[in-house]
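ASSEMBLY PREDICTION REQUEST
Request ID: AP-0331
Submitted by: J.K., bench scientist
Number of chains: two
Total residues: 724
Priority: normal
Notes: Please return the full assembly, not individual chains.
Input sequences:
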Amino acid sequence: MIVKKLIEKIEGEAELEFSFKSGKIDDVDIKFDLYRGIEEILKGKAPRDALVITPRVCGICNHAHLIASVRALESGFRDAGFTFELSKKAKDIREFTLSCELVQNHIKWLYLTIFPQLNRVLKSDPDDNYALKASYIANTVTKAIAIFAGQWPHSSYAVPGGVTCDPTYIDIISAQNLIDEAIRFTQKVLIGMDLDEYLSIESLSQLKTLGGDFGKLLFTLEDNQLAKIGKSYDRFIVLGESAFFKSAKSIATTTSTIDQRFVKELEQTGTKAKAALYKNRFYEVGPMARAIINKEPIIMSLRKRYRDSLITRIYARVHEVAILLNYTKGLLQNLDITQESCTLKSKATPSDFSGVGTVEAARGSLIHRVKVKESIISKYEIITPTQWNLSNSVEEKRGVAANAMIGLESDELASFVFKSFDVCSVCTTH
Amino acid sequence: MKKLKLLWLQSLTCNGNSHSFFNHPDLFAILSKFELIYFPLIDTKYSLEDILHKQLECDILIIEGSIKKGLIKNGVDYSKLIENYAQEAKHIITAGTCATFGGVFKEYDPERISGFCFDKERVKENFNSYKDKLISLPGCPIHPKWLSYVLQMLGSGNTIPIDKLNRPQELYNITVHTGCSRNEYFEWKIDTKGFGHKEGCSFYEHGCQGPYSRGSCNKILWNDTSSKTIVGTPCFGCTEPTFPKERLFFTKTNMGIPATMPLEVSKRAYLTITGIAKSFTIKRLERNIIDYDS
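STATUS: Completed
Returned structure:
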């Protein structure tokens, strides 16, 4: 039996086509049909124009595209013989705004996607305050982004050599207040405990003390036998590097280094999205991958008990809200505003270069690759996180999310697992 | 008074306008004045399947994203779907530069992709059918408060004064330059020394299009906080039919003079003022605003 389902209220829409055999999902096709040709649009443009065009790939993770883009240009400039170092200030401001974008993203996913879908699965009444909560905290942290980036969405404040802003102490204090407010919300509403206390949780038995919406969610998943569904390959990869995230891959208990040259895109039939693979294998990217590579104690405990199931995946994403807020607070405390914001002359551009920029975006590793010939972009490639997680089957291998939905008994349940990956159709096809 | 029914449809888009509107600090107070038929980020009474396959009633249609002839999305021809709802709606708002003029995504297939009633600045055939109920809200993305202004004016039955491209005059009859914190540097023609300085103006060398781009970005701040030009990023003219132009971080100049003049300022007027301003040195404006060593 074939069941088609239009998945909405994600970023854009996706169509899932399930085939059921003896009441269980036996195969699933994931289709994305919105194609805008951003890589084509970039051809022929001046290199820096990518900083304005690529954020328009995505309304919710535009900032990650900006950072990937500026890193690609900077790597290309160096490749062409330019020598420059970013100031610590510029690096930290970029880390700050990027981390804030991840926070707003995860919070929107939790309240606008996961809770409503859980209500559908359990046929329970939704809480009218979900959207209100999402909007409150998302607005608080995007305001903090705007202090440095001018606006969110669609800023282009990161430029080769640094950032365009020159923040003052008033700016820093305003940003600190906003982060403190986001932490207050997290403590009161999301986790029901002090942030420090939360961050010290390492074992599953300590999770009983968790309150707030997050605690409620975890207990509901456990009570309704939903914790263990949604397992996939238990194979992870992180391609982006930051002061916080480490690049590596993890299979079973082994973590090893990676070489980005083995990342490949493959065309798929019936969808506008290409699949992304490493050495011809599918890997899961995103918060769960980052936490496992970072050996976050509580995620390691969850993985031990539940493997890469729904509960571990959901936990890792919400957990990142707490650790990133804590991280951003530290970034602001240590920011030396007397350093230079931008260390490269604004007109300096080599005429021929190729560069790669990788960043850990909300949904996982994002890669931009640029080639410039005679001062114009001759090729631009974007490989998004969702191409890793949400691929169909290629060469007999099933994509990560598709694999996680096999064996489930209803399309609502499968949609829940699908949404746990934080689906973004606009990024997947771009 | 009966609440107006509000329907938000997405064509070729990045969802940036939805997320920008979601940033509105008073979002729920505003939405409570309307009957929400569909909004892409929030659970609504109707599903997208309902929107696609039943012709639901709507009073205000908000269109996000560029229009592409024959665009099949979710199994439906979106150009037809949008026309169908547009015909029935009492008001149409094109939210963002894509829906208004075509925007970034137009560049992929310029022959087939455009805004809803405009193709860049050119008026499309359907403009005559919709001109009396159309409000253009260009901006990449839209500013949440520009949209709430329009929604609430319509909700209370007020008439919005518009220009010849159906843009609200209150929002677009000023330029992005209005209210920019760098205005003094513009007055005295002092260029910024590069990116990363709170001093100096980006109009002369760094590509700022603020003086000739319509919009109230520096009057109604972004995220209630700041704007591109305040933080030292040039204005890219994202509200304009011409968005995106080329070489966005560089000012095109002729003999050292910016090639595009501030809106409706003649070259003669500009050169006269510039000549006078440049003949003086204002020491205060040559110094850093804050001296951290003092």
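REVIEWER COMMENTS: Chain B touches chain A through 62 residues (CB under 8 Å).
SIGN-OFF: pending second reviewer
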